[in-house]
Specification:
alpha/beta, nine-stranded mixed sheet, binds 1,4-dihydronicotinamide adenine dinucleotide, Rossmann fold, 333 residues
Length: 333
């Protein structure tokens, strides 16, 4: 099935006029959403706990309220705090402030699809999920551009849920590029699947490839340059985007193409393919989501230790030694 794509002329934002919007959270997505919505003339308040994000929102001239007050005030409540804290914050500060006809908006399908948040039947539940980091959402908006964004309706109480989701997408600039119709399920699953069965392998390979190269006696700086610090990887990624995954192969030497085509198949073998499917099943059945929530309830010590260990890996020292090269290259690419 091909996703339906909405552009500027397809969407009317008048459904938002007179509506009060609460942006809950002023982090990556929250700050960009609040600023873009306000620049579009919307009535926006920020709901936040008393922390440095609240200070930032204050400095940007927003009315910052406790989350419960913002949720009570608003017709549309945008849940833009980390997925793992949303269920508790929703229960404590949002659920009791919902009344018939209000709308709840999410930037990820995770909590609603996996059932950690169960909104009542008398509200609209929509998703507007940028495929872009928060800073990018703001920067593109300021340049008159937009970012690809998924929109979805989980529950349509008022009959206007889809219009609201699309109007918010337009207000943050998304329809300048395209808002793509999706579902909470599709967003939640594909997002986790790409993180866990593609990017995870990519990061593991960084470590393993460099470990093997240096253990085999090759200079670690030269190896890191070869792999990514020269910036060639960025050029290749740009070529993938501009020209296509396989069509850009023509920019590489035929020796490189031959090696890539013949050796890749040796790496992505039966076991790897089976694990990719297994990871997808873990996500689809909700086993991963349950594990992640349980991990946090029990303090997530192993996870925090693993993160700390990555920052002690030799790769970080090599990167420090190549700091000037990386900085200069990243400026021009
Ligand atoms: P973030 O980590 O930047 O959120 C920070 C905000 O959450 C701050 O305002 C902070 O005060 C608040 N917060 C943190 N802990 C809290 C707690 N215990 N109680 C109440 N508030 C708390 O979040 P981010 O990355 O903007 O994610 C928000 C939503 O956007 C999530 O649903 C995420 O999946 C989605 N999303 C994020 C993208 C990204 O690039 N970061 C991309 C697309 C969607």
């Amino acid at each position: 099935m091909v996703a339906r794509i909405f552009h500027e002329e397809d969407v009317d934002t008048s459904i938002l006029s007179g509506k009060r919007i609460a942006v809950i959270g002023f982090g990556n997505q929250g700050s960009s959403h609040a600023l873009n919505l306000r620049d579009g003339g919307m009535d926006v308040v920020v709901g936040n706990i008393d922390d440095e994000y609240a200070k930032r929102a204050n400095e940007q001239g927003f009315s910052v309220r406790p989350i419960r007050d913002a949720a009570r005030y608003a017709d549309i409540i945008c849940m833009l705090i980390p997925d793992e804290v949303q269920p508790r914050v929703y229960k404590q500060s949002v659920e009791n402030e919902l009344s018939p006809g209000k709308a709840l908006m999410f930037a990820s399908g995770f909590n609603v699809h996996f059932g950690f948040i169960k909104p009542p039947r008398f509200v609209d539940v929509v998703m507007e999920a940028p495929r872009m980091i928060g800073v990018g959402v703001r920067e593109l908006f300021l340049k008159g551009l937009g970012c690809a964004t998924l929109v979805a309706v989980h529950h349509d109480y008022t009959g206007n849920a889809r219009k609201i989701a699309l109007a918010i997408a337009k207000a943050i600039g998304a329809t300048r590029l395209g808002a793509f119709e999706s579902t909470f399920e599709e967003e939640a699953i594909l997002d986790l699947f790409s993180e866990q069965a593609f990017w995870s392998a990519f990061y593991e390979l960084f470590k393993y490839w460099l470990e093997i190269a240096t253990a085999s006696g090759y200079d670690e700086l030269v190896a890191a340059l070869e792999l990514y610090c020269s910036g060639e990887m960025v050029e290749e990624t740009k070529a993938i985007l501009e020209t296509g995954v396989f069509r850009q192969m023509r920019f590489h030497s035929t020796t490189s193409q031959y090696g890539t085509i013949t050796r890749g198949k040796r790496l992505v073998t039966g076991e790897v393919k089976r694990n990719i499917r297994k990871i997808l099943r873990e996500i689809e059945t909700g086993r991963f989501a349950e594990e992640w929530m349980r991990t946090q309830r029990t303090g997530a010590r192993a996870f925090h230790e693993a993160r700390e260990n990555l920052l002690k890996h030799r790769i970080n020292m090599v990167e420090d030694q190549l700091a000037d090269v990386r900085r200069q290259v990243s400026k021009v690419l």
